[in-house]
Structure formats: structure tokens, C-alpha cells
């Protein structure tokens, strides 16, 4: 994780203060993971202060959102039918 990501996503106080902004960056309804979604989410989280530098870092950010409970997933990415949506609850 880059130093910039550590100062945002890796900082518990920053996460608590910005969890709602990050949640709002994610689609409310189930949406396929495609280039359009990645661009929209990537731009929105950059506006919120998360500075990622590569598509791999952006993918890691999405995985982090899943693990922390900001985002839900369903389907199988390996066969191209994965979908995501914002989780019903905020970061706890």
C-alpha cells in the first residue's frame, strides 16, 4: 500500500470521518464490475481524498471496501459476472 493510501484508507480516524463519502461513491444497486464502474468509483474516491495511482491500487481499494463492509459483492469475477453495491450499513 502506498504511503498516500496509508494516510487515508490505512488511517482509522480518516476512515471514520470519510466512510459515508466512500460509501456514496459505490453504486446503490447491484452493478457489474466493468470499466465504467471502475472509472466512476475511482474518480469519486479520489475526490474524497483517496489517491490511487494504478488500476491495481484501485482494485485493492475495492477489495478493502469489501473486507471492511463498505461494499458487498456477488458473482464470480473469474467468469465476468461479478457485481457490487454499497453495503446497507456504514463503516463501524
Could you explain how this protein is built, in words?
With 92 residues, the protein is mostly helical. The protein has one domain (3-86). It is 52% helix and 11% strand. It is built from four helices and three strands, in the order H-H-E-H-H-E-E. It has helices at 3-8, 12-25, 35-48, 55-68, and strands at 31-32, 71-74, 83-86. The chain has a three-stranded antiparallel sheet. A hairpin with an 8-residue loop joins strand 2 and strand 3 (83-86). It is globular, with a radius of gyration of 12 Å. The relative contact order is 0.22.
Ordered list of secondary-structure elements with their pairings:
Blueprint: H1 3-8, H2 12-25, E1 31-32, H3 35-48, H4 55-68, E2 71-74, E3 83-86
Antiparallel strand pairs: 1-3, 2-3
Helix pairs in contact: 2-3
Defining traits:
92 residues, mainly alpha, three-stranded antiparallel β-sheet, 3 strands, globular
Number of domains: 1
Strand order of the largest sheet: 1-3-2
β-strand amount? 5-15%
DSSP strand count: 3
Instruction: Tell me, briefly, the overall form.
Output: globular
> Which blocks of ≥5 consecutive residues have pLDDT under 50?
none
Mean pLDDT across all residues, rounded?
A: 89
Number of helices: 4
Over all CA atoms, what is the radius of gyration?
Answer: 12 Å
**What is the chain-wise order of helices and strands?**
HHEHHEE
The secondary-structure class comes to mainly alpha
Major sheet size, sense and barrel closure? 3 strands, antiparallel
- CA(first)-CA(last) distance: 22 Å
Helix fraction? 40-55%
Amino acid at each position: 500500500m502506498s504511503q498516500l493510501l496509508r494516510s487515508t484508507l490505512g488511517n482509522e480516524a480518516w476512515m471514520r470521518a470519510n466512510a459515508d463519502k466512500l460509501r456514496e461513491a459505490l453504486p446503490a444497486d447491484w452493478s457489474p464490475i466493468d470499466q465504467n464502474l471502475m472509472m466512476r468509483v475511482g474518480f469519486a474516491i479520489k475526490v474524497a481524498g483517496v489517491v490511487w495511482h494504478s488500476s491495481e491500487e484501485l482494485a485493492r481499494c475495492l477489495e478493502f471496501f469489501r473486507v471492511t463492509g463498505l461494499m458487498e459483492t456477488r458473482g464470480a469475477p473469474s467468469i465476468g459476472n461479478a457485481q457490487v453495491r454499497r453495503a446497507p450499513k456504514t463503516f463501524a
